[in-house]
Amino acid sequence: MKYLFILLLLISGGSFFIINSLEPLRCDDLIYQYYWLPERTHSLKEPIDLCDRIDNFNEAFHSQINHYLVMNGRFIIHFLVSCFCGFLGKPLFNVINTCIYILFIIGCARLLDYKFDLKSIVLISILWLGLPIQYIFWFSISFAINYLWTSTALIFFLILFRSRMQKRSDDSIIKLFMLFVVSFILGTLHEGISLPLTGALLMYGIQNWSLQNKTTIAMTIGVCLGTMVVVLAPGTIGRGVSYMNNIGFVDLLNLKLDVLRYSKRLYLLLIFVFFFFVVNKVLIMKFLKQYQLLLYFIFIDFLFVLSVPHYSQRIEFPLEMLSLILCIGLFLDSRLYYKLSKTICVLLVGGMLVHMSMTDYYIKIVNNEYTEMVNEFLSSPKGETHYRNFNIPKLFASYVPRLDKNVERDFISFVYNKEMIIIEDK
User: Are 123 and 105 spatial neighbours (Cβ–Cβ below 8 Å)?
Assistant: First the structure.
């Protein structure tokens, strides 16, 4: 089974690499090619210098200092984005992003204590078929680093923290300091992960204080301090105030309804917990104890998503991702799985392979559409382009990103200094 798991991992990684290679620089990536200005100006949509493309690490570093002051506090994340968009290039990113995706799958398996067996094979298939808005893994460099890379870092941190909790003897001073630094860096990556993680670690630490040791306390403090760096950034605060000043009560209420509408995997987890509480209390009590920290994260992240004054499905990704992982853990520990394990495995793996091949096909078509639209826009004196709308089956909608007629059009218009006029054929 180990070799079958490795084979399937390589196949999914290969398909993932092909998809990455098909995607051009899009959306936010167009902006992050350029140097960020130290303050927002009224004449620009984004505070960047279109005459100064980022060419080296030094420029990327200083650009992100300005970005930290005017946009948001994700310094490390957007430093990497600037480097890849500016001078490291998409081909290198495609390779590294594929490796991160493979690590993401391995991390999910280790988080559930699977040893690359039949359960791990099922896990690969369900993750591909069940994760929300899958396209954020490859749609743009910015999206992938902000969500796939940070989610992978979160998963491996949770595995590391669990191992330190189970360790009875204290770590050396050097190892303690290194784990503190790693935890601090994790806290600075993305407020959508670090804020709920900070709350979860504090709640978990208080409830299990007798089990804490110097290492877990140092890791908790590291995450808390890193979270302060990203949350208290002038750019983060400024964006938050801007969101609050530009949204009415009705719009805010609609955003909260969107949160409730899209939290499908969270609802599935709640249904699973209730069902197994009724039919198998021993299993559910073991589950609640084993994944207490993850459940705290999900709870606090749900409150966080409800509280922010704006919404996109990307905000819910960590919440929905961990909910799905725990659903998989519950399902694969149930009697139903043990009775039908081989049948379920064959069906899921077969479905995943077919779905992957079709995803490659549709992404190639849609990216050709995107290239044609941009080329037509650039060649038109008036900036006109006809909107291509190849009919994509709903089953692939969250895997195949179309050109956004609002946000992405604005990015293209801004970068090329020419308004894009989209003509929709009747």
Answer: yes
Residue 183: the pLDDT is 95
DSSP letters of 209-222?
A: GGG--HHHHHHHHH
The Cα 251–Cα 244 span in angstroms is 11
* Residue where the block lists tokens 């954020």: 136
Angle ∠(181,80,294) on CA atoms, nearest 5:
50
Q: Which residue matches tokens 């399937």?
A: 8
Residue linked to tokens 């905000």: 315
Q: Are the C-beta atoms of 215 and 179 separated by less than 8 Å? A: yes
Closest CA to 273 of 297, 300, 291: 291
Residue for token pair 């940070």: 150
Helix axes 335-379, 317-332, angle to 10 degrees: 150
> Residue 101: which of 48, 29, 149, 154 has the closest Cα?
149
| pLDDT digits 0-9 by tens, 149-202 | 999 999 999 999 999 888 777 778 898 899 999 999 999 999 999 999 999 999
Taking the C-alpha atoms of residue 337 and residue 119, their distance in angstroms, rounded to an integer, is 10
Which residues, 6 or more positions from 26, have their beta carbon under 8 angstroms from its beta carbon?
139, 140, 370, 401, 408
**What is d(CA 56, CA 77) in angstroms, rounded to the nearest whole number?**
16
32's CB contacts (< 8 A; 6+ apart) are 54, 78, 81, 82, 85, 86, 141, 142
**Burial category of 193 from C-beta neighbours within 10 Å (exposed 0-12, middle 13-18, buried 19 and up):** buried
- Contact status, residue 247 vs residue 307, Cβ threshold 8 Å: no
Angle at which helix 118-130 crosses helix 317-332, to 10 degrees, equals 150
